[in-house]
TrEMBL record:
Source organism phylogeny: Bacteria, Pseudomonadati, Pseudomonadota, Gammaproteobacteria, Pasteurellales
Reaction it catalyzes: O-phospho-L-serine + 2-oxoglutarate = 3-phosphooxypyruvate + L-glutamate; 4-(phosphooxy)-L-threonine + 2-oxoglutarate = (R)-3-hydroxy-2-oxo-4-phosphooxybutanoate + L-glutamate
Protein name (Swiss-Prot/TrEMBL): Phosphoserine aminotransferase
UniProt pathway: Amino-acid biosynthesis; L-serine biosynthesis; L-serine from 3-phospho-D-glycerate: step 2/3; Cofactor biosynthesis; pyridoxine 5'-phosphate biosynthesis; pyridoxine 5'-phosphate from D-erythrose 4-phosphate: step 3/5
EC number: 2.6.1.52
BP terms from Gene Ontology: L-serine biosynthetic process; pyridoxine biosynthetic process
């Protein structure tokens, strides 16, 4: 079978070893003679899986004991609503916007609380860059400060944690979770849709400091009430059991690789190799400042829309899938999450070199 490399922004690649194990266990999980999709989420076998998956995630991210881990549904967009519903006390929140997804989060939150937006992109920068993130003088007047460390559409990543004093910092880590080391204790809430680095779509991870649980608005639906979900072990209704199972396999796989520290080294090397080629290319270019270039979503253009379209079409013919940029920006985008091997990067670069030789 021809090797295909999938550069989709999400749902994205899942590690081959995880897919192989899931395939092997599909009809006989845990020696029960049935699929994990067919067992009760309340039964001992699945409850044991859920407990172990949380332990493994805590180990990967060194999650402190005073934080809860919730396995929810509704994606990151669901959390756009859940966060203001659960955290609003003073009646206002600060949103640091750096692109499409952080702005969308701010728009949704404005339905439930007063939102102040600060655009954190450098206004005069030749290439897209992020300003210094020091908000200690204003942050504490807000219920929380929200930002998105990685904008998948534009390929802008924020590596510095914003300074917010004693304010609650909330991060949408849908596209960066488990891709690099972080200090969880600096955050009040970390949330992430699974479909980029954790597993398939359909499940959402929420890591929340315990003192932030229990203050939901009276109007908050049960499914978005963190206190209700915490008390029910994320099972107030039937959870997406197969997605949870696949996430549990991914956690074990990452631990087997040596944990997040090793994963981060690999991600740095992959991104650097691709950016190095783009920087010396006579055809392709990237418009993000080096200090804010995403390790997960590498965006690039030829400067000609017709040529961009030809590149995407020819790439697909060469088994390089999903390289078309988001409709908001166009161009190309190579999403190179944890599961993308270095071989995929090298194959893409070989194709880009050949394309450049023919069209530059």
């Amino acid at each position: 079978m021809t090797q295909v490399y999938n550069f989709s922004a999400g749902p994205a690649m899942i590690p081959q070893a995880v897919l192989d194990q899931a395939q092997q266990e599909l009809k006989n999980w845990d020696n029960l003679g049935v699929s994990v999709m067919e067992v009760s989420h309340r039964g001992k076998p699945f409850m044991a899986l859920a407990e172990q998956s949380e332990k493994d995630l805590r180990s990967l991210y060194n999650i402190p004991d005073n934080y809860s881990v919730l396995f929810l549904q509704g994606g990151a967009k669901g959390q756009f609503s859940a966060i203001p519903m659960n955290l609003t006390q003073k009646g206002k929140a600060l949103y640091l916007t750096s692109g499409h997804w952080s702005k969308m989060a701010a728009n949704e939150a404005s339905k439930y609380t007063e939102v102040t937006e600060i655009d954190i992109l450098e206004p005069q920068s030749e290439k897209t860059a992020v300003i210094e993130l020091d908000f200690e003088d204003v942050a504490e007047q807000y219920d929380y400060v929200h930002y998105c460390p990685n904008e998948t559409i534009s390929g802008v990543e924020i590596f510095d944690v914003p300074k917010v004093g004693n304010a609650v910092l909330v991060a949408d880590m849908s596209s960066t979770i488990l891709s690099r080391q972080i200090d969880v204790s600096k955050f009040g809430i970390i949330y992430a849709g699974a479909q980029k680095n954790l597993g398939p779509s359909g499940i959402t991870i929420v890591i929340i400091r315990n003192d932030l649980i229990g203050n939901a608005m009276s109007m908050t639906p049960q499914v978005w009430d963190y206190a209700v979900q915490q008390k029910a072990d994320s099972m107030i209704n039937t959870p997406p059991t197969f997605a949870w199972y696949l996430c549990s396999l991914v956690f074990k796989h990452l631990l087997d690789l040596g944990g997040v520290a090793e994963v981060e080294k690999h991600n740095i090397a992959k991104a650097q190799r691709l950016y190095d080629f783009i920087d010396q290319s006579s055809l392709f270019s990237n418009v993000v400042a080096p200090q804010n270039r995403s390790r997960m979503n590498v965006t690039f253009v030829t400067g000609n829309e017709e040529l961009d379209a030809k590149f995407v079409a020819e790439a697909l013919e060469n088994n390089l899938q999903a390289l078309k940029g988001h409709k908001v920006l166009g161009g190309m985008r190579a999403s190179i999450y944890n599961a993308m091997p270095m071989e995929g990067i090298d194959t893409l670069i070989r194709f880009m070199k050949d394309f450049e030789a023919r069209y530059a």
